[in-house]
Design goal:
- This protein has two domains: 64 residues, lambda repressor-like DNA-binding domains (434 Repressor (Amino-terminal Domain)), CATH 1.10.260; 101 residues, Sandwich (Jelly Rolls), CATH 2.60.120.
- The longest helix has 15 residues.
- The radius of gyration is 24 Å and the shape is elongated.
- The protein is built from four helices and ten strands.
- The chain is an alpha+beta fold.
- The two termini are 37 Å apart.
């Protein structure tokens, strides 16, 4: 269990960053010096009740906000529990492990591509990160061709049609992260 000093410091820092505030801005809003705020965030100073009230009032949060321990969030996903999305040929299956959430700006998939088959993906938004979990694929992006084997990765902007080709007889497994900056 963390000490209350560390919990207060972490909560203050997280709130400040979440709101996009500098230490100077928080000092201006709360009347607490930048140096004191930095010491509190680092867990090197245990604020007085009066100081914590100033910070709470200036940032418009409850006094107890700073003392709340955040619960560890764990979400286990099993591919066996998911229904895949398939292309027309049924040789390309996408399992949405972690669907898009606006607050997170990314989504994560597992893709299974049967041996000696291919899938054409239309252009789309975001940045695409491909990691080959098993097998060997060829990824054609525009006029360029990239060969990826187990353990290889590739990042690209998917602003043009691209084709995944499994160049072996066995099913290839890919992990895909699509990041959306906006």
């Amino acid at each position: 269990m963390q000490s209350i000093t560390n919990i207060i410091g972490k909560n203050l820092e997280d709130l400040r960053k979440k709101r996009g505030f500098s230490l100077d801005k928080v000092a201006e809003l709360t009347g607490v010096s930048k140096g004191m705020l930095a010491q509190i965030e680092k867990g090197k100073s245990n604020p007085t009740v009066s100081t914590l009230w100033k910070i709470a009032m200036g940032l418009q949060v409850s006094f107890s906000y700073f003392m709340a321990e955040s619960a560890t969030t764990i979400k286990k996903v099993s591919i066996s529990d998911l229904d895949p999305f398939e292309d027309d040929s049924s040789h390309y299956r996408i399992f949405s492990l972690f669907p898009f959430h606006p607050g997170k700006k990314f989504e994560i998939y597992t893709i299974q591509l049967d041996g000696n088959s291919h899938h054409i993906s239309e252009k789309h938004a975001g940045e695409e990160y491909i990691l080959v979990g098993e097998g060997e694929i060829s990824l054609e992006i525009g006029e360029k061709n990239y060969r990826l084997a187990t353990g290889d990765g590739l990042q690209f902007t998917p602003n043009q049609t691209h084709m995944y080709k499994n160049v072996q007889n066995e099913t290839a497994t890919l992990f895909v992260v699509i990041y959306y900056s906006e």
